[in-house]
Amino acid sequence: MKLEDRISRSIAQRSGLVVLRSEFSRMGSESQVGRVLARLVSEGRLVRVSKGAFAKARINKFTGQPTPAGTLEDVAAELFRKLNVEIAPSRLADDYNAGRSTQIPMRATVNTGRRRISRKVTVGGRTLSYENNHKRT
Q1: Residues 6+ apart with CB under 8 A from 71
Q2: Residue numbers of the domain that contains 126
Q3: How many domains does the chain have?
Q4: Are 44 and 36 in contact (CB under 8 A)?
Q5: Which of 1, 45, 72, 110 could form a disulfide with 87 if both were Cys (CB 3.0 to 4.6 A apart)?
Q6: What percent of the chain shows pLDDT beyond 70?
Q7: Mean pLDDT over all residues of the chain?
Q8: Mean pLDDT of 69-83
């Protein structure tokens, strides 16, 4: 069985949206896995959301282009869960959810606690931004 078939079957059997490149490291060499994932992206079966992270794709019925099967918030939450990074809603989202504000936060922002993160996560033209609890003195 070809490596592309094995990776395609593995992706299809997964219940989540996000797949990491490192999850396929035991199937072949780094360059082989990279080529197969690049081919799946070019075929529209996957969408690259970050370095080494891909989301399952579906075809947008309006544009005909492949788009991630979930929203930026869903993809980011699953991605950080797989990377063992704890995230929380931003201060603005937390204020809105608690009823302290009536302004709906439009920007996708997550709170990373005291951790600094520089990973760029982009889904459909929207990019995730970060804030943290670290207060400088």
Answers
A1: 123
A2: 3-131
A3: 1
A4: no
A5: 110
A6: 97
A7: 90
A8: 92
